[in-house]
Amino acid sequence: MFSKPEDRDAAFSPTGKGSGVPSIISADLRITGDLISDGDIQLNGTLVGDIKTGSLTIGESAHVEGKVAAKEIRISGHVTGEVLAEDVTLTKSARINGDIIHENLSVESGADVEGHFRRQQAPKLKAVPTPSAGSAKPNGDGSAKSHNGSDTEAEPA
Fold first, then answer.
1. Is 144 left (phi over 0), alpha (psi -120 to 50) or beta?
2. 154 pLDDT exceeds 50?
3. Residue 19: is it exposed, middle or buried by C-beta count within 10 angstroms (0-12/13-18/19+)?
4. What is the residue range of 94's domain?
5. Which strand ranges, in their side-by-side order, compose the sheet holding 46-48?
6. pLDDT > 90? residue 149
7. Across-strand partners of 92?
8. Is residue 28 part of a domain?
9. Any idea what DSSP says for residue 63?
């Protein structure tokens, strides 16, 4: 009658990975700081900080001051800051003060945006090779010389 999940730790992970259950920030909660999750976040409260997550729902009562980045974002509340996502949906109650960078965009009649829309292909993340110890030496200008003399570009810190 009752079954035990095969991977109990994955089913109850704090990021929601494997469980399908979103992390919910209620309307009476105010957070100062960044939120980072691989799973889903449903925000109904106030956040002063940045959000980076897989899927984000910003409810009608929510207020965000900061950069918002996710694969999918549905906004019904207030956002002051940049919105970056593959799929962005703005409902009729959305109020945005900032630029929206998207691949796919849906805007309901009544949404209010003060900023620019910029369509952009989703950035493909590529693995950055890690130089072996002593193989490249920084030049102090953001570049490096490898032991074979070729120039390489250093990743910003």
1. beta
2. no
3. middle
4. 10-119
5. 30-32, 46-48, 63-65, 78-80, 95-97, 112-114
6. no
7. none
8. yes
9. E
Cα separation of the two ends of the chain: 53
The pLDDT confidence band at residue 12, using thresholds 50, 70 and 90, is very low
Q: Are strands 151-153 and 143-146 parallel, antiparallel or unpaired?
A: antiparallel
Q: Structurally, how many domains does the chain consist of? A: 1
Judged on CB neighbours under 10 Å (0-12, 13-18, 19+), 72 is middle
In angstroms, the CA 115 to CA 100 distance is: 7
Q: How far apart are CA 66 and CA 48, in angstroms?
A: 6
Lookup: tokens for 87: 């799929």
Nearest CA to 75 out of 108, 117, 50, 53 is that of 108
**Does the global pTM surpass 0.70?**
no
Using one digit for the tens of pLDDT, what is the confidence trace for 14-40? 444 545 788 999 999 999 999 999 999
Q: Domain for residue 153, yes or no?
A: no
Higher pLDDT, 144 or 122: 122
Average pLDDT of the chain, as a whole number: 78
Residue 66, domain member (yes or no): yes
Amino acid identity at 21: V
Query: Residue 90 falls within a domain, yes or no?
Result: yes
